[in-house]
Write a structure and sequence with these properties.
This protein is an alpha+beta fold. The protein has helices spanning 52-68, 77-89, 102-116, and strands spanning 7-13, 18-27, 30-37, 43-48, 72-74. It has a 5-stranded antiparallel beta sheet, with helices on one face.
Amino acid sequence: MANYPIRRFTYVDPAKNADKFWHVKLNENQIQLWWGRNGTAGQSKVLDFSSKWQAENVYLDRIQKKLGEGYTESKDVDEAGREIDDLLNHAAGPEDEGGPDGDFLRRLRKKVAAQYGKG
């Protein structure tokens, strides 16, 4: 089993004054957790398991639980940057002489809005 990257989740609900983060990383037979209110250092905990299989099952169960509680997964900054670079690299076509056109900008705005909830 390969090591997993840190997965980041957030929960924001202004009506409940909730602005929380929850991060999780699986590494062999160990799970690392970080949680707290956004803007704070939060807390952390390491869970050790007797097997990789057991750790992976708890890892996946915890993620499903957080998603069920309304948390949403945040993209890694590097991953989001690679997606934007990909859009920029494919924006230029022969018809627009290498410059981004209105269609490209609309697609970029739509992608950013869908990913980050901003318009």
